[in-house]
Design a protein that fits this description.
This protein is an all-alpha fold. It contains 5 helices and no strands. It folds into 2 domains: 1-61, no CATH class; 65-114.
Length: 115
């Protein structure tokens, strides 16, 4: 933890407010207690004053969202790489491939997945 006597920045204050909002959304704080803690947070000047507001709340866990997005990107790149590899092998071996047919799969899939 930071030195309890250090002053809070706006970013740090917003981070604590976000933890309080998450705790209220999970049902760990009722509306009145959430309001009281939020008021106390915005009156707090130092890390020590703010630390007590979240001391009885569990430590937040990292979101699974970035991990799931990386997994999806790896699957996408692996599948698209396979399609382009097949196209390249057929082209090099003289299979008579007309056009870049992997684009018909790659572009719509990319648009649907990442836009």
């Amino acid at each position: 933890m930071e030195n309890p006597g250090l002053r809070l920045s706006d970013h740090e204050r917003e981070s604590v407010a976000s933890r309080l909002r998450d705790a209220a959304a999970e049902g760990r704080l009722d509306v009145a207690e959430f309001g009281q803690r939020l008021d106390a947070l915005f009156r707090a000047k130092t890390h020590g004053e703010a630390a007590g507001l979240t001391a009885d709340l569990p430590t937040p866990t990292p979101s699974a969202e970035p991990r799931a997005r990386r997994h999806h990107l790896r699957r996408f790149m692996g599948s698209v790489g396979t399609l382009w590899g097949i196209w390249a092998v057929i082209l090099v071996t003289g299979g008579g491939v007309q056009g870049w047919w992997p684009l018909w799969v790659t572009v719509p899939w990319a648009i649907a997945s990442f836009v």
